[in-house]
Amino acid sequence: MTADRSAIVSPTVSPLSNGTVFAALGVLGFSFSFPGTVWALDGFGPWSATGVRGVLAAVIALSALLATRAPRPARADWPALAVVAGGCAIGFPLLTTLALQTSSTAHSAVVIGALPMATATISALLTRRHPSKVFWAAAGTGAVTVIAFTLSQHHGQPTVADLYLFGALLVCAAGYAQGGRLSAHMPGWRVIAWGVVLAAPVNLAVSAWALPHEPLHLTAKAILGMVYIAGISQFGGFVVWYKGMGLIGVVRASQLQLAQPLLTLVWAVLLLGEHVSAAVPLTAVVVLTCIVVTQRARAS
């Protein structure tokens, strides 16, 4: 992820500074997203869960924009906001929800754990910068590691859920890259707020179609999961995440984000009772190491 004033990096930032706390809260919030989605699927169908999540998040985002009297984005910013909407507020929620019907939370967390690396790669291509050979070597190693892990889990063949996850990875990375570009001149929370609002008509249409056609059981777990993924995963988490990145800079905050897939693995075991093989944390550590290298090579 990239953020408003992401170029700001203070070498004297305390580990317990406000920026670090905000960024850490964002990482913690996002780490519950997959368990929250699994809980929502306890009572909603995948399309209903995605649509309702987006509509509720849009209500929150629009309320925040109106309360702060946020100005409308410039006309030139709308195409990039459309990418943010399509990637972060429609594509990623839908594809990961579809994947989590059959894929474990732990497996999904490892695959999506490559998101910072994918975002950095797409950002480099969009800005036509030429990162070092070290960057590309680490990015390539991380990508090969994720693909090898995915294939090894299913006897050499990707499942439909894996294809959903890789698709989610790409569209969300594109959304983050464009969001980072917009955050150079627009507060980061407004970027995601406008993206969520722009996606609202699509999510409203999806909800209107899916709710009558998919089973609906409003259990306590489903409602709790829906409230979480709409309020935190889709909007609230971005607010504190962008706030933290604006205070301590993209490089420092990105190092905190490396803990996200590992935290999700912990929640998968503690909250969902999943059994994790040794290959899962091992692959996560390899991917995170590659991300550290890409971040440092990109910043150098």
Taking all residues together, what is the mean pLDDT? Answer: 83
Task: Estimate the helix proportion, in percent.
Answer: over 70%
Structural class: mainly alpha
Order of helices and strands: HHHHHHHHHHHHH
Uncertain runs with pLDDT below 50, 5 residues or more?
A: 1-15
**Shape from CA axes?**
globular
Number of strands: 0
Number of helices: 13
**Main β-sheet description:** none
Radius of gyration, taken over Cα atoms and rounded to an integer in Å:
18 Å
Spatial gap, N to C terminus: 18 Å
Proportion of residues in β-strands: under 5%
Number of domains: 1
Highlighted features:
globular, disordered N terminus, mainly alpha, 300 residues, 13 helices
Q: What can you see in these coordinates?
A:
The chain is an all-alpha fold and 300 residues long. It has one domain (18-299). Helices cover 75% and strands 0% of the residues. 54% of the residues are buried.
Question: What can be said about this structure in brief?
Answer:
The protein is 75% helix and 0% strand. With 300 residues, the protein is mostly helical.
Could you outline the blueprint of secondary structure elements for this entry?
Blueprint: H1 18-31, H2 33-40, H3 46-67, H4 78-99, H5 105-112, H6 115-127, H7 133-152, H8 160-182, H9 188-213, H10 220-248, H11 250-257, H12 260-270, H13 279-299
